[in-house]
Amino acid sequence: METLLLTTKQEDIKTAAEILRNGGLVGMPTETVYGLAANALSSEAVSSIFVAKGRPSDNPLIVHISSVEDIEKYNLVREFPESARLLAEHFWPGPLTIIMPKSRLIPKEVTGNLDSVGIRLPSHPVARALIKEADLPLAAPSANLSGSPSPTTAQHVMDDLKGRIGAVIDGGQSDVGLESTVITVCTNPPMVLRPGGITLEQLKEVLGEVSLSDAVLEKLRDGEEAASPGMKYKHYSPKAKVYLVKGDSKDFCGFVNSQPFNTTAVLCYNEDAPYIHHKTISLGNRADSKAQAHNLFGALREADRFEGVTTVYVPCPDKEGLGMALFNRLIRAAGFETIDLKDTKAYTLIGLTGPTGAGKGQVASILREQGFATVDADKVAHKALENPECIKNLVESFGEDILNSDGTINRRKLAGFAFKNEESTKALNRITHPVILQLAKAEFEHLAKEGFDNIVFDAPTLFESGADTLCDKIIAVTASFETRLERIMCRDNITKEEAHSRMSAQKPSKFYEGKADFVITNNSDLENLKTQTITVIKELCDEQ
Ligand code: TXA
Ligand code: MG
């Protein structure tokens, strides 16, 4: 079947209406998501929706109308309860579906044999024009293949259903981005079955008491019935496995940065994107749940377009307001798999960094004397090059020439290839940094089990590697240029010129000072360095 891509012009709406009157299916823009519309009064037309979507037939459809009067005009309900009238008055046209006792005119295919029907008056002008032009109530589920994320553009509908339906009207991107709130007035008090654009708080303001179905926020137990059949199916999933991650922004960034680069994508907030070293898709600002709702389904679809990505991490939203709908969709996309970072971290991680010659190593020794455990990033980086996955990826990027005859990495040769230019250095870092972070985390956890509460990660490129996002606090050790120059010449027995060239390859002290919680300026002697370090330790312990 050819699927027409129609515009919102009157003649195209007429064409779409004609298709509907003839029992066909049309992808229809609405303010929530695109719907797959059919004549709600025809069993045959409605049945073909289930076939096109691959949808289980016990999952009922919403009936869309173009004015409140349509309810009586088409004789859709046995009763239009007072609470439903109130809701209609306040929230229609808009993203609210009201479930009421159904009339006999509604075919059982629409309601999955239930005795009630969900009705919605959308605010999208094109949806209403189409309903009016067809002169029919339109049954319409979201216009996606069953199980995949709901479509928020005409292109999404085409991607899923091209060749299976008569037409799609391109009405631009859906404004809300999540499906309507579903509330039933067949219970006392009325119950929200699916959260959406109209929040629980808004509904309570109008109705007073409103309950929330268990299935909204939790997984149904085996054998438990969902008040809304749609809530029992796995939904909204891209092909990659989605994990919902609970934890603050910093822990989130630290966690995702230590996941393998090639196979990981991250849905995140704008504020976190600069700190994440993986492929990211931003959902909007952290506090802007409207933007997040608007972007969510598109982002889930986009995640599947990254080549090789098998895992997608998403921060867990708060459940207030629109956040409840976001959480509801995401927890389903994740098949109820969440990762709670609070459960996994039982130690304070202190990052220790600074430019060469500043005395970072000495600070690490003082911290050890004071009972802190330290992990040396350079040593971990060495170990990372023994990791088989890492070796495989490095060979893929730089060729077999980086290997010794026994298959291990020849570090000198690798350095020759990897530091040739900025691009190759980036490639090296992309492959090694997540492995280094993962191995380092394993060491932190091992030390925590041994009883260390405070662990220091001694890393010259703490910020560049993304390891800063793992840390609770960061200490930078710096010193004046002249002092560092003297120290490097003396320590490594090199000329002034050589020391200069090494130092100029590094970031200036200001870079470290601007990003650290504590700065130790080491221009004097060891005694002074010790005093400063102990002051920092005291402040650290006071904060804990
Ligand atoms: O925003 C929306 O509601 C979109 C647009 C196209 O209007 N439509 C939509 O339809 O999301 P669908 O079929 O994907 O979701 C309908 C939800 C399902 O969870 C279904 O179980 C529930 O509404 N539902 C429909 N009628 C019901 C009824 N009589 N009793 C209980 N739940 C019902
Ligand atoms: Mg749906």
State the main characteristics:
binds threonylcarbamoyladenylate; binds magnesium ion; single chain; alpha/beta; 3 domains; elongated; 544 residues
Write a brief structural summary.
This protein has 21 helices and 21 strands. With 544 residues, the protein is an alpha/beta fold.
Q: Low-confidence stretches at least 5 residues in length (pLDDT < 50)? A: none
The tally of structural domains comes to 3
**How helix-rich are the residues, as a percent range?**
25-40%
Physical arrangement of strands within the biggest beta sheet: 1-8-2-3-7-4-6-5-9-10-11
Which CATH first-tier class of the largest domain would you pick?
Alpha Beta
Rg measurement, Å: 30 Å
Helices, by number, come to 21
Mean of the pLDDT scores?
93
Structural class category:
alpha/beta
Oligomer state equals single chain
Descriptive report:
It is a single chain. The protein is an alpha/beta fold and 544 residues long. It has three domains: 4-216, DHBP synthase; 241-342, Threonylcarbamoyl-AMP synthase, C-terminal domain (Rossmann fold, 3-Layer(aba) Sandwich), CATH 3.40.50.11030; 348-543, P-loop containing nucleotide triphosphate hydrolases (Rossmann fold, 3-Layer(aba) Sandwich), CATH 3.40.50. Helices cover 40% and strands 16% of the residues. It is built from 21 helices and 21 strands. The strands form three sheets. An eleven-stranded mixed beta sheet has the order 1-8-2-3-7-4-6-5-9-10-11, with helices on both faces. A hairpin with a 6-residue loop joins β2 and β3. α15 runs antiparallel to α17. The N and C termini lie far apart (66 Å).
